[in-house]
Amino acid sequence: MSALRILVPVKRVIDYAVKPRVNKAQTAVETAGVKHSMNPFDELSVEESVRIREKKRAPGGVEDICVISAGPTKAQDVLRTAMAMGADRGIHVEMKEGEELEPLSVAKMLQKAVEEQRSNLVVLGKQSIDDDAAQTGQMLAGLLGWPQATQASRVEFGEGDSVSVTCEVDGGVQTLRAKLPMIITTDLRLNEPRYASLPNIMKAKKKPMEKKKLADFGITTDKRLKVLKVTEPAPRQGGGKVEDVDGLISKLKELGAI
């Protein structure tokens, strides 16, 4: 098996424990003064990449683990966190505060990054918890012409650049086998990400971080979609009690459910 050069895209998003609020203009979710952290699915990707190296699961070994993120200056925080978890180096694609990229633009950027970094495996979260698009991994595989395994809950390496991936699907799991190079998107059952220790956080500050611009990848922030309005979901209404099964059936008929 070829030595792995793993590219791990990570994204800075509103922390999963924070309840999002719509801004006053109803154009987006309010991000000012809100705690941000690494997208949880991307944490799984970093953890899995580091485990592949630590547990020597790939016969050819792991040559390099590179994390990449596009965002404002604060996006460097999630890159440093990923390096504290065990990634070797980072690439920060600088953007202005408030600028966003659609999934296709991200996929095109990653396509260029894969070519520049000579990566033969891309491990990324199945979705980010801000837009929940779940499109980037699939689009990247299409642009590169590589096989893909999405929503991975288990990754195993065989001989001859063979990789078997157990994927979460409706009603169960399925196992796919493909050859490197390939794309893998991660799901929650894959692993439990580690906490970065203080010594590793200090070491991460000395690891190389390359800075790039979107223009270096031939990418712009032009959008194909326009958000017309963002609103809070309607408040949930309380339920009602019925005395017996007949009452339940009557109520369901009344609501048009049966």
What characteristics describe this protein?
258 residues; alpha/beta; two-stranded antiparallel sheet; globular
Would you mind describing this structure in some detail?
The chain is of the alpha/beta class. The chain has one domain (4-254): Rossmann fold (3-Layer(aba) Sandwich), CATH 3.40.50. It has six helices and eleven strands. A nine-stranded mixed β-sheet has the order 9-8-7-10-6-1-4-5-11, sandwiched between helices. The protein has a two-stranded antiparallel ribbon with strand order 2-3. Strand 7 and strand 8 form a beta hairpin. The chain is globular. Keywords: Electron transport, Mitochondrion, Transport.
